[in-house]
Amino acid sequence: MRVDAGLAKLLGLSRTAVAAIADSDDVLVDGRVVGKSDRLTAGAMLEITLPAPPQPVTVQAIPVEGLKVIHEDDDIIVVDKPVGVAVHPSPGWTGPTVVGGLAAAGHRVATSGAAERQGVVHRLDVGTTGVMVVAKSESAYSALKHAFKERTVDKVYHAIVQGHPDPIKGTIDAPIDRHPKHDYKFAVMNSGKPSITHYEVMEAFRAASLVEVHLETGRTHQIRVHFSALHHPCVGDLTYGADPTLSKRLGVSRQWLHAHQLGFHHPADGQWVTFTSEYPDDLAQALEKLRDEG
Questions:
Q1: CB atoms < 10 A from the CB of 258, how many?
Q2: What is each CA distance from 49 to 6, 14, 18, 32, 98, in whole angstroms?
Q3: Which helix (H) or strand (E) holds 145?
Q4: Within 13 A of 170's CA, how many CA atoms are on the CB side?
Q5: Which position among 74, 125, 177, 243 bears the catalytic label?
Q6: CB 130: neighbour CB atoms within 10 A?
Q7: Strand, helix or coil for residue 159
Q8: How far apart are the C-alpha atoms of 153 and 39, rounded to whole Å?
Q9: Which residues contact 252 (CB under 8 A, 6 or more apart)?
Q10: Contacts of 131 (CB under 8 A, 6+ apart)
């Protein structure tokens, strides 16, 4: 087995992380420095020097342009997340975050959870816009985490996908795992976690379709991966195989995917509440162009 593949299995690290260790001459086999593409042999003495652990990520209270508060009470704060904003800080991310924007605006959130993502009960991709909820009270954090785990939250997305899904209403039930070759991507794989996406075509155009999506599970990149696997990637999603010519024609520089509606039992009284987010300008303009084309 190759060094990067073997060490990834042994250490539980990504192949990218293992490759970086090997590139730093920190992997020795029988006392000899080896590269990531060299081979491991049975009975050899393997020595690995692991890098120092990363420094903890902290929340920077920095205002976020376009971050709107849809609803706030003693237990929750519901926001409309703009494009280009991560939900919380992470290694390697230097851009704006939802939690940092809320802190800068003086909003208090729950202290439950890791320091860099306190109050966060679910996430949206950096390139995905729309509605999301953050817990303010500790009881709300526990209740919402449980609700997302038990799949009692109604998560409704709108997406424009290339072509015309057949059937026009259906369910995609396909496990998702990290891509075997590209750590920044995910893929449908037998080894993955169960992932279920329900969809229905709302409008059909010559080159694409507007679909409403209900997520039963919430895997990273789930909608993007599932529609890409059907050969109907989200318009603008070049990472998952979208046509760059169509994306350019519609003026879309990221995936046409929007968290349109979020419904859940309010953690304070159990009453069902629903919050919606309208399309941002870039997505709305692309949709109008498709309608104009017929």
A1: 24
A2: 15, 16, 11, 13, 36
A3: helix 138-149
A4: 11
A5: 125
A6: 27
A7: strand
A8: 47
A9: 235, 236, 282, 283, 286
A10: 70, 78, 79, 80, 81, 259, 260, 261, 262, 275, 276, 277
Q: Worst-scoring range by mean pLDDT, 3-12, 231-240, 273-282?
A: 3-12
Match 């520089």 to its residue by tokens.
253
Q: What is the pLDDT of residues 151-203, one digit of tens each?
A: 999 999 999 999 999 999 999 999 999 998 888 899 999 989 999 999 999 99
Overall pTM surpassing 0.85 (yes/no): no
Q: Report the distance separating Cα 46 and Cα 29, nearest Å.
A: 5
Give the count of alpha carbons within 13 A of 44, CB side only: 18
Inter-residue contact 112 to 239 (CB < 8 Å): no
Q: Say if residues 236 and 252 touch (Cβ distance below 8 Å).
A: yes
| Residue indicated by tokens 């990531």 | 36
Q: pLDDT by residue (tens digit) across 191-249?
A: 899 999 999 999 999 999 999 999 999 999 999 999 999 999 999 999 999 999 999 99
What residue type is assigned to position 212 of the chain? E
Average pLDDT over residues 131-140: 97
Which of 81, 71, 64, 120 is CA-nearest to residue 278?
A: 81
125 catalytically annotated:
yes
C-alpha 63/C-alpha 167 separation (Å) is 44
Structure tokens at 286: 């692309």
